[in-house]
Each structure stands twice: as structure tokens, then as C-alpha cells.
Design goal:
Protein name: Bacteriophage SP-beta YorD domain-containing protein
InterPro entries: Phage_SP-beta_YorD (IPR019094), XkdW-like_sf (IPR035950)
CATH class of one domain: Alpha Beta
Oligomer: single chain
Order of helices and strands: HEEHH
Radius of gyration: 22 Å
Pfam family, one: XkdW
Low-confidence stretches: 1-5
Largest sheet: 2 strands, antiparallel
Strand order of the largest sheet: 1-2
Strand content: 5-15%
Number of helices: 3
Mean pLDDT: 88
Structural class: alpha+beta
């Protein structure tokens, strides 16, 4: 398995594995102040705590296939206005 050169973001990896889990409720991630290495400090979720290899696999998948970011409200409005303008122009062609 190829390493990415950066530590696994454990919170994002856990949420990839268990999307319904709630950070700081179902699990708590802490960082060592000297090394900044993160660990799962508390696990209260009703499913098995993921292993380091499961976290790495989930993180690698997130890096290879990032989630699609939803369009901002501004982008959505702009797209709808452009579609409306195109529909208006097309409708006027039939008049």
C-alpha cells in the first residue's frame, strides 16, 4: 500500500467507514503535543473501533476519490439563471 507522506486524518477516515458516527460524541481524537501524532482517545460508538490498517485504507480511498463538493448557493443560482435564459431564447425561436 502506498503511503501518502502525511498522517491519516483519523476523523475523516472514521467518518468514511462510519458516516453516521458523531465526532466528539461517539469518538474523540487527541494529538500528542510533542509529536502531533493523533490517536483515537475515546471510542463509544456501537460498532467496532477501526484498526490502523482500516483507517489507512479509508484515508487512501478518500485521497484517491475525494467526495464531490456540492455547489455553493451562488453557483446553483447562476446555473439556474443560465438554464432559464437558454430556455427563454429557445422558446422565443418558436414564436
Amino acid at each position: 500500500m502506498e503511503r501518502r507522506g502525511s498522517e491519516v486524518n483519523k476523523e475523516k477516515a472514521i467518518l468514511k467507514i462510519y458516516p453516521e458516527a458523531v465526532p466528539n460524541v461517539d469518538f474523540i481524537i487527541t494529538a500528542d503535543p510533542e509529536t502531533l501524532e493523533t490517536t483515537i482517545h475515546t471510542w463509544k460508538y456501537d460498532k467496532p473501533k477501526p484498526t490502523d490498517s482500516q483507517l489507512q485504507a479509508a484515508w487512501d480511498d478518500l485521497q484517491a476519490n475525494p467526495p464531490v463538493k456540492p455547489k455553493s448557493l451562488e453557483e446553483q443560482i447562476k446555473a439556474r439563471l443560465e438554464a432559464l435564459e437558454l430556455a427563454t431564447i429557445t422558446l422565443m425561436d418558436f414564436m
